Amino acid sequence: MSRKEPGSTGKVRVGLLFGGRSGEHEVSIASALSVYKFLDPAKYDVTLIAIDPTGRWVLPDPAPLLAQAANPMHVRIAESKEDFSVVPYPNKTQLASLAPSSPTQIPRVDVIFPVLHGTYGEDGTVQGLLELAQIPYVGSGVLGSALGMDKEVSRRLLSTAGIATVPTLCLRHYEYQAASEAVEARIYKEFALPVFIKPANAGSSVGVHKVKKADDLAPALRDAFAFDSKVLVEKAVSARELEISVLGNDHPKVSVVGEAIPHHEFYSYEAKYLDENGVSFRIPAQDVPEAILAQINTWAILAFRTLECRGMARVDFFLDRDSGKLYLNEINTIPGFTSVSMYPKMWEASGLSYAHLLDELIQLALQNHQMRRALKTSYDRP
User: Fold this and answer.
1) What CATH number corresponds to the domain at position 61?
2) What pTM was computed for the model?
């Protein structure tokens, strides 16, 4: 496929967008550093576009970020005099920027690669901005991103598609504020401890707690509500955590199945990112019945299509050790891209290298944009 207006060098100009206003800010930086290192400089001219935790957009120097590559969780987006607000510039299919001193422009790009995890990045907000600017971008669109981010809404849709999910109760912040004791009594009525408490719109296990005794329920709910106005109470299942990567647009394909084996109480944020011994991976997963593997493959693609995903997703499953029942836990439309992240590692185990995976994702983004640009946006009356 011909690329849209490549730069004078013939390379594709990629804007690598990362950071963001979410509890996964540091994870996003770590993922972006990994993507930056694996984008082939013979094929791509890369512009780093960072969003700091307050929402400031900056064009950072890559050198300070790469200097911390050995310990990316310590990386911070440096102060910059060139912070700016961003507006769509659809006639030029780019983002224009308004600097404090004078108008300027973000360097022209052919495609944006958003490596923004969590709120204000993985939930459709940035995707909407890029749609307005008419810029191709990697991954799902506004609807797919929003559905994938909201675990409560996505589970309702998955259920209608015949995909099993863990029994869950959804709580609203206003309900809990008005009658906390009644809400807690409702939880005890529907579930026996332990239960998981998690924000409906978050990732990387931010704000997630496993509650094993009554005294821990209220603090767990308060912390989860600090990250979202909608919180899920989920039956705790003694389960193996199986994952699969999906790649594609209209004809998605799946990787081998992998297994995450946490060495903490559960697959927490600390186990994922702070403790180098917090989790181990088995790729491909071992001793999983063929029927279960087949069901994971089928459900992963069905979930990808049901939730209107594009480009990529990592789909996480629970395999109940007691009953042998399979549950779909969640879908991640911008999965982690660090050197130890499951999404690229499962593709590597399937024969697709990290660098070639990035190539495919960028081509999928350009193809999807070309398809959308062919659609009419006005009605010519006869």
Assistant:
1) 3.40.50.20
2) 0.87
